[in-house]
Amino acid sequence: MINIFNDLKSIKDDTITIIKTQNLQNDKLDELKSLLLSKHQEENITKSNYVDEINSILKLRDSNNQIAALKLLNDFKNSKWEKLNEIEKYKLIANIGICHLDLNNIKEAANSFIEAFNYNQKNAKAAGFAALGYSILGKTEAAREKINQTILLDPDNSNAYVALIKTEIENLSLEELLIKIPLKIRDTVEVSFALGGFARHKNDFKGAIYWYQNATELAVKNKEDLKASLASTILESVTNPSLFLTNQIDNETKNKINYCIELLSESWSEFKDSDLRKSRSWILINRGIAKKFLGNIEGAYEDIKQAKLESDNSYFAIRHLAIVSFEMDKLDQSLDLFDQLKTYETEDDKDEFNIDIFRSSVFHRKNDFKNAILTLKNILNDDISEISKVHAKGNLILAYLASNNINKAKELSYLTIKDHPKYLRGYIEASKVFIKLNDKKEALKILEQGYEYLNDTSSHVEIKEFAFQYSILEEHNKTIEILEPIINPEIYTELSRTLLMAYYHAGETGKALKLCQVIRSKNSPIDVIADMQSTIYESIGDLSMAIDVCEEYLDIYPDDQRIQIRLALLYYKIKENKKVKEILDSLNILGVLPLDIQHQLAYLNILVGELKRGLSIAFENRRNNYNNPDAHLNYIKLVSEFNQLAEHVTETDEVNIDTAVKIKNENDEILTYYILNESEKLFTKELLITDPFAQSLIGSRTGNVVEIDQGIGEPQRFEVVGVLSKYVYAYQESIELIKNRFPTSKGFKVFNTGKTGDIRKDLKPIFDSLDQLENFDNKLSHYYKQRLFTIGACSELKGENPIKFWSYVISNHELGLHTKISLRRNFVLATELIDKEAGIVIDIISLLTLASTSNLELLEVIPNIKVLSRSTIDCIDELVREIDGFRSDGYLLVGKQKGEYIKEKVTKEQIENNKKHYQGLLSWAENNCEILPCNEALTMNASKKDTLNKTIGKPFIDSILIAKEHGYLFLAEEETLRAIALQDYQVKSFPTYDLLNFSFKTGTISLDLFDEEIVGLIGLGYKYLPVNSEILMKCAEKAGYQPIPPFDLAIKTLDFSISSEDSSVQVSADFFYMLYASVSLPEIRLKLIVPILYVLIYRRNPVKVLRKLLIQIEIKFSILQKQKDEIQSIIRDFIKGKYG
């Protein structure tokens, strides 16, 4: 493992060095501004031959030949000193000081300025120079004395104020300082520049840039130093270490850095061929740093390498070159430079920058762990700062880990935490140790201990590392908590990617999508972003946005196969099969794709009719992932699901390409080989068609004997005992592997059947499985009947399509569908909202209900927006695909109900009719409904949404949430589901009954048709629908006047929990009257009357309710005495218990 701290600390060190280099240039420029100051000292100098000679020499300085100028000035001093007057001596010494200043000889310059004053003590400029000299040397009192003297002599002397700024830099604020400087003096080049240095020293970068910019604009000549200092200050102002430690450099910052590079380049071009190039080599260093910030590591290397050459191996140039060499993996060069750096470092340098820690990192990257460990141990034996000890120990832990010395790494990690509990590095590296030991519990415990010390003052290296460690441990919420405050969402970095993954895996899909959207809007297309964003959009049913994301990405990166396959799957969902095929046809040569992606690709090819290609991809996927049980499960499911594949997996009896041949050798050993046409890599049991052994087998059939002449001894004989399509054999082999090698795999069950001839014994595993399924179904049915589970919940528990469970409950009248109606409340609500043309979200069961009763047109005629969730469409699509996979000539279903094993033949006609029905339903939905995404899902955690999917069913909860988001009505049949929608999500809903009632009230359907439709719903097993005598009569007719469905279901509405006592009595009396008018046989009438009497008295007062009934019969049958006597007799006999 490479120590990330060392990699990143180099960036931090760059920022520190900008500051240090800036301090140096402050001494040269901010405080003195020698190039400008020197022009003012000559105004009152009397001309003489000696002055002319000095001025002649100074022309070399004007052309930046300071070394030559300084040599000539010193020669002039040695030869002519005694002949010079005081003013000439002043001019000579002052200019020697200025040359020293240019060459960065700061101390010599200061001493020269102080000495020069001795020869011109009454001159304000000389006093100003002396003040500068004393301020440079830190002689505060002497500097203040000279400053005051200078201002008395000349209140406008800028040198005095430059010295004042330097002298009071630690004592005054900028505001306090400005009070002491007259306005007109502030707008001189040298004072403005010195004020910039003062502000920068106070970390007031805005002020510093203002004054530096002001100085640059004021200057007429010699702007190069000013530009360089301005650039370095801007660079420092935008290079917050956190930005670079997290790689979060936005476009605005990049633009500023590029501007700095431009200024530094202009400045360097002025100095590169002059004597000042050595003293200005820091310009190259800062330009190299700026380039490195922008990722131009090669440009940084060249600049810093040139700076080292120009500066005659300055400490900072060597240091930066060593670091950048390390970053470029020039490791031997980096080591040499660090060794060279040691000869230049001072004690102060050692405290600030430990060379040996960096050297250990170089050894580590070279995999020379022995020297890395030795170097670090030596460091720890030295007298170094605590922070250096922490980093040395951290590096040593990593070196131990990399060299597999786990025990020492573990021991040192505990020791580091104990010795330096407030330093986070120990906790970070200790967690890495225990992650490698696979002791995630201990790793997390250690991180939690260190987390207490993580705060606003923690370095961004430590913050970043903590986040990464939590991410590795899948502590996603902790990762989010750490990263959110420091992430710039507009920039795609390793950190933003980590946060994105944390959001997604923590279930914060709303936040993940928002981060994807921001990154996508500010950056060029990124594969991870495109993949995740399209996945999230697909999860909420927003396929159009998912497609847009993929298409935008593929416009830039058209060959990304993962995104191509994702886009093809999305196109398939919206029935754009032509586009699907175009993508699939373009994928001629597949790259390295994950197992699940290749399975999707195979599946997709089969779905659009490319059967051979799909099967071939599935075979290769299984072949290349042979040791992964998922590969075999995927292959088995794929081959089992699609009937259309039969033509490609049919039996063959002749050995050829793409067959599997079983042969028996002379030792009776059975060997199996796949005969393949081509392959880059052969696995066990595979032969290429070009193999001599394969050639000898080609054309053979079962029973043939093949002789192989090996050139020595007798030919070897092989008997062909079986020939299969390679796809068939792979299918059979995968089943055996799941059974014997991967028995714990879930998703496919293999039954071990016997061969005794006794069906019950031989098929016992199958019967046992059917018993278990019946037991499960019975429990599920019990909970469903108790209204504890909805259809959606039950289908989730069974792991089947909700359409199937709906079909099951309406075919089993003991279960039926609970659709209890509150007549007045529901009808008023539905009428009010439908009249207002509110949107209607249609639940999948309501859609099936309306389709099954041929009432979809009732939705068509109302003006309301009709809405379906994408998951509703997916359920119907899934069923159509399943039907497509059935054998075209029918199939057999086996099961167990009420203790009896049953089988059911599903005919070809049933398959075709089902497919036609559901395809028609999809077509109706496409023409009449909007498919809306479930955006509301993004407002909750994905784990909560997943729980809702499992407990309510995805198409059901999606529909409720869509209705909530848009304020729409919810059309749903199940009473329990409607209650959930209202109570938990404040969504108002109504069932199909209310739609029928509304259609009748508005004249769309007649009363007779209304009654017929209610009878139809009751016939489907929809329970507790309001009925009248006409509906009961129609149900009796459909039931053949027997107490069976739909009649026995209809009378349940007369139950005490559904209808009032008076209403039930009235409907019953009316029905009896109609019954006597229609049915002449007493025994038939009796079969229908008695069940109603039982319903009427259930959990009511029998005497009271039957008395009411007798009164109604007395009234109703007042002119039908014979019929009245008969029915009253039946009721009296019922009271006596004659009918049980």
UniProtKB/TrEMBL annotation:
GO terms for biological process: regulation of DNA-templated transcription elongation. GO terms for molecular function: DNA binding. The keyword Repeat applies. Pfam families: PIN-TPR-GreABC (PF20698). It comes from the Bacteria. Residues 841-981 form the PIN domain. The keyword GTP-binding does not apply. Keywords: Repeat, TPR repeat. This is PIN domain-containing protein.
